[in-house]
């Protein structure tokens, strides 16, 4: 599985933000069995799990404190973990627009950069603590 530490500029938030990306790889057995036109195709898209961190954590929390990489590899699932600051993944009247950032900017940016499916039924969201609240929104 590829593990990518990603940083980019968010127009919605007006700052650079971090994300941790996990992309599954083929096992040696699968790579040998899969024809090159499929194995090397740039049309291959992964189902995606967006994992939101808790209040006192950061984008790399899922990598450091869980075995999500193993889960993603086993299920052939890309896992993307955005930085959420301490904004409760909510748009504030005074302050940053975290929900708008996730929905309108983060996910489209990740899909444009990495081989992620853009189908609704291939995209899942989960979280812990504050991230669980954001996932429900």
- At the first level of CATH, what is the class? Alpha Beta
Oligomer: single chain
Query: What's the architecture in CATH terms?
Result: 3-Layer(aba) Sandwich
Number of strands: 5
Total helical segments: 6
Task: Enter the CATH topology name.
Answer: Rossmann fold
Shape: elongated
User: What's the alpha carbon Rg, rounded to whole Å?
Assistant: 16 Å
Largest sheet: 5 strands, mixed
- CATH H-level superfamily title: Alpha/Beta hydrolase fold, catalytic domain
Share in helix: 25-40%
Strand order of the biggest β-sheet: 1-2-4-3-5
From the N-terminal CA to the C-terminal CA, the straight-line distance is 29 Å
Which structural category do the helix and sheet elements fall into? alpha/beta
Tally of discrete structural domains: 1
User: What's the pLDDT, averaged over the residues?
Assistant: 92
Note the run of SSEs as H and E.
Answer: EEHHEHHEHEH
Strand content: 25-35%
Describe this entry's structure for a reader:
The protein is of the alpha/beta class and about 140 residues long. It has a single domain, classed as Rossmann fold. Helices cover about 35% and strands about 25% of the residues. It is built from 6 helices and 5 strands; from the N terminus they run E-E-H-H-E-H-H-E-H-E-H. The chain has helices at about 30-35, 35-40, 60-65, 70-75, 100-115, 130-135; strands at about 1-10, 15-25, 45-50, 75-80, 125. A 5-stranded mixed sheet has the order 1-2-4-3-5, with helices on both faces. It is elongated, with a radius of gyration of 16 Å. It starts with a strand and ends with a helix. The mean pLDDT is about 90.
């Amino acid at each position: 599985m590829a593990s990518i530490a990603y940083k980019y500029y968010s127009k919605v938030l007006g700052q650079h933000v971090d994300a941790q990306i996990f992309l599954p790889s083929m096992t040696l057995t699968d790579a040998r069995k899969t024809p090159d036109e499929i194995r090397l195709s740039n049309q291959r898209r992964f189902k995606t799990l967006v994992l939101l961190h808790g209040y006192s954590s950061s984008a790399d929390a899922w990598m450091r404190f869980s075995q999500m990489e193993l889960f993603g590899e086993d299920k052939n699932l890309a896992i993307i973990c955005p930085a959420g600051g301490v904004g409760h993944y909510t748009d504030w009247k005074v302050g940053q627009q975290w929900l708008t950032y996730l929905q309108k900017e983060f996910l489209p940016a990740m899909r444009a950069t990495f081989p992620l499916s853009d189908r609704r039924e291939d995209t899942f969201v989960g979280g812990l603590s504050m991230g669980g609240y954001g996932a429900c929104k």
